[in-house]
Amino acid sequence: MSREKKANACHCYLSVRVFFLVIILIVLAFSMRVDCAADDGTDDYGDGTTNYDSPAAQEILSELVYNSVSNYTSIFKDDISRDYGFCITDVDSDWNGAFNFSKNSNFVSACARKTRGDLTKRLCTAAEVKFYFSSFLTTTSTKKTNYLKPNKNCNLTSWVSGCEPGWACSAGSKKVDLKNGKDMPARTTNCSACCEGFFCPNGLTCMIPCPLGAYCPAAKLNKSTGVCEPYRYQLSPGKPNHTCGGADNWADILSSGEVFCPAGSYCPSTVQKLPCRKGHYCRAGSTSEQKCLKFTTCEAKSENQNISAYGVMFFAGLSILLLLIYNCSDQVLATRERRLAKSREKAVQSVRETAQAREKWKSAKDIAKKHAIGLQTQFSRTFSRRKSLRHSEQLKGGGQAKLGSDAAWPPVPLNSPGASQEIHVASKGKKKDKSDLTKIINSIENDPDSNEGFNLEIGDKNIKKHAPKGKQLHTQSQMFRYAYGQIEKEKALQEQHKNLTFSGVISMASDIEIRKRPTIEVAFKDLTLTLKGKNKHLLRCVTGKILPGRVSAVMGPSGAGKTTFLSALAGKATGCTMSGMILINGKVESIYSYKKIIGFVPQDDIVHGNLTVEENLWFSARCRLSADLPKAEKVLVVERVIESLGLQNVRDSLVGTVEKRGISGGQRKRVNVGLEMVMEPSLLILDEPTSGLDSSSSQLLLRALRREALEGVNICMVIHQPSYSLFRMFDDLILLAKGGLTVYHGPVKKLEEYFASLGITVPERVNPPDYFIDILEGIVKLSSSTGVTYKELPVRWMLHNGYPVPMDMLQIVDGMAAANGENSSPGPNISNAESDSRSFAGEFWQDVKFSVELKKDNIQHNFLKSNDLSDRKTPSVFQQYRHFLGRVGKQRLREARTLAVDFLILLLAGICLGTLAKVSDETFGSLGYTYTVIAVSLLCKISALRSFALDKLHYWRESASGISSLAYFLSKDTIDHFNTLVKPLVYLSMFYFFNNPRSSVLDNYIILVCLVYCVTGIAYSFAIFLEPGPAQLWSVLLPVVLTLIATNNNDSKVVDAIADLCYPKWALEAFVIANAKRYSGVWLITRCGSLMTSGYDLNHWYRCLAFLILTGILFRAIAFFFMVTFQKK
Question: Annotated region Disordered: where (predicted)?
Fold first, then answer.
């Protein structure tokens, strides 16, 4: 704050102590030079006139001036660095840039000749310099005064001509000590005009040299205005013999702009001004002319060069480079896809040809077998009966072996790539005992109503862990041939055993070695979910279990809690209070311990629309299958899913989005299911997978799911009123009534039998599921002869199974006993409670309380730690990061049009701001950079919102399945660094070359890269934490507000503290510093004054960049925390 107070005290345009030190150095420099010259007898006019214009004399004077400045600069370097290091970083360099007259010191010799050797007696001493600049601190005027306080030489009683602006006097015969900072010498004799190259302040009778880049000629009187041009002072009235002198002031460009070398000219010395030649340009305060670049037009006396053509060429080159990168990347991906498609087609053709050859060989073998049997019958007549019988038995045994297992076409169970290797062992007739898995599955099929716990360990520890056949395959052709060969064998097996059950598969696999999936059984007892804060039951007293190897359907009318039930099983029910018990394989364990082998298919088709069908499936397989699984096996899994879901024809088609049409809705639904099937789950939960599908698509999907169930997968799905043929494909049914009460839970084939026992029979030509749901909805009225109402059905089921009836439902039991069908529900208390809270304040409080509870549940679920019991080692974070990079990279390539629009908008912003916001030398272009910070921040934030705002649902689904959140976040951020590097180039290609500031392109680019990195992190936080609409509003509002705070010149400490935390303040400071460093010489006072007023420091350039980068890192950490904490489950 002390810096701002000093700036206000000296009227915001100079610093007294800076000027004091500057002038002390100048005076001492000239003192040493002249004193040395006097010692050599060069100023002795009594004995003769010294030739000051001789080259030898000028060289000696220049050498003396340079040495004296260097010596006295080292004396005051510590003071300058300590007090004014904010505007002078390199004292030696800045001093040489302002006061090194060694190259052209003609004005010194001219002044020595004009003053007849008393130059030393006309230069200001340290005391006079201190008095001159300290007078600005004591003035109370709000404007800069053009005179000083009365002093020893200029006062009310003594005002000689040397006191006038542009004039100076000599000390006469008195000796002058220029280093004396206390006493001001008497200097009132031999007054004359100030020498050219010097300035003489008003109210002092001494001279101070002008800095390099200044033009200080003798003034000439403009008789029409009475002003001594090119300066601003006028002649004093009453002095007819007084004439114009020299320069009278040197400060910042606003108060002493006439001293600066004008634009369009350059000043090699402070007394010489030359016009810029054609092909060159000269900025204000230039000491030399700068050659214009090629392809630019620079006429004579040009103030600047027009380099807009370079901007156009730069942007054109950048566009061509980006197009080449895009086309090359697209060509590489397309070539790779074509190669894979060709390998796939060859594999399919090879497998089909092999299958056809095997069929022909099998037919020929059957014919030969028939002939062999005929020959056997003929030969048997010629042999003895004993020998004939023995030979017949041997042949019969061989025939059965051949019929049972064909060596060239072995019947293998599903998902058994290594099964063919064990056929030889099986053909020998060695029988193994039934495994525990087979026994358990048989018991399930024989007694599906058993309530015993399903106690199976994950994985079969007795299975030998031989490397599968796919591990030995390396090329794509081999992998595809292997995968399609297995698929064809599985198809043949399905044709041979159309009605094969899960136990049948296990039994068939008992003689061969297969890779079995771990099994999961979920049992639930008195499962009840109550909405927090509202005391509303979503699910009540649900008891039962879903079994591996079976497909269970959950049905019921709207509001029955079907989705809630599945969410509770999957551990995704938040905002609810859950009571009851859920057992996993007969043990009380968290469902999150098995999330790596649990698949959950949401009702909405959450699929990446800018990826193809195969790319979506492959990404899920890479990240969720076991990391140890060979690639050939992964190819088999993906190809099997594509084949079973009927997606072969659209495998290379984009899924599509709302804006861009892709595959059909039914195909999209199947892809949604396929994302979970490719990870080979043990428990697969689906929420209305057949909604929006026609009958054929539904049956295709359900056949694929039944095939998964044959491998031991526990499948449970919500379904709405299926057709009868589709309904018969389910194994078990959970029928829920409104309020989440169970009406039936058991095998589908026993559903009608149970309702018939209640007196409810399905009419002819009526679909049973439709009829039962209509009853639960109250649409179909039951006849009074049945003695049952639809509200009694949940209680009937509880009594049928011996489950306890809730207290509030005992009235229904009493009514049933009294043959009274009226409902006496616990409505009064609940309705009263609801009516009591219907006021606005009550509803608002309930909503707030519910929201807080929901957020609390989300945080607990997201940070809940549980042991991994899935026995599956998925890829590491780094491996998943690589997979994410590939996916996000493809998505960005397919969004090239959107990216091009972003670049075009930045380009237009650069043109507008570069043309309209011209660089101001007084503020070093801070206005244009202010607009730049706002524009770049706003546009880059808006575009960065798309990175996370559009993929929230996809992330929630993937993270719930165990995919790394860190890999997802880092991959998005890494790919977005392309924009971080390219967007500043696009903007600068127009802004810099149209605005043409003094700072370099590299400095501007580095600052913009750090700025874009900073605001991108802020945009991530908005995109993740807020909805799209509010996120966009905040992205627009925040840059404007923070920039206003950062540029506010209020003296409030609170505002200054807030401004120090605003990224626009640091970005603006970095821009101004990069520009201010290019101003030297005559600009030194302007630079210090401007930096002091803004509170900037030349030494803070790297600090500004570091703050921007740290802000970006901090907000990325906040965004990641929001992403893993406030996500929906």
Answer: 384-435
Beta bridge partners of 367: none
- Cβ–Cβ under 8 Å, residues 791 and 743: no
% residues pLDDT > 90 (the chain)? 20
890 within some domain: no
Other Cβ atoms within 10 Å of 397 Cβ, number: 11
Instruction: Dump pLDDT digits (tens) for 156-170.
Output: 888 888 888 999 998
Domain ends where: 219, 243, 260?
260
Average pLDDT of the chain, as a whole number? 77
904, with CB counted inside 10 A (0-12, 13-18, 19+), is exposed
pLDDT of residue 832: 38
Beta strands in 547-677 (DSSP E): 551-555, 576-584, 598-601
Q: Is residue 375 domain-shared with residue 250, that is, in the same domain? A: no
Q: Are 202 and 248 in contact (CB under 8 A)?
A: yes
Model pLDDT for residues 864-883, shown as the tens digit of each residue: 556 778 888 889 999 999 99
Q: Would you say residue 384 has pLDDT above 70?
A: no
Q: Which domain holds residue 111?
A: 2-260
Give the C-alpha separation, 732 to 362, whole Å: 40
Looking at residues 621-637, what average pLDDT do you find?
A: 89
Residue where one domain finishes, among candidates 780, 805, 828: 828
Q: What is the CATH number of the domain that holds 712?
A: 3.40.50.300
In whole angstroms, give the CA distance from residue 506 to residue 436. Answer: 10
- Counting the structural domains of the chain, the total is 4
Q: How far apart are CA 352 and CA 357, in angstroms?
A: 9
| Dihedral angle over CA of 970, 975, 980, 985, nearest 10 | 170
Among candidate residues 1009, 986, 1011, the one with its CA nearest the CA of residue 904: 986
800 and 916 both lie in a single domain:
no
Q: Tell me which long-range contacts 773-776 makes (C-beta under 8 A, separation of at least 24).
A: 773/555, 773/556, 773/557, 773/721, 776/556, 776/557, 776/560, 776/735, 776/737, 776/738, 776/743
- Packing angle, helices 877-894 and 308-380, rounded to 10: 110
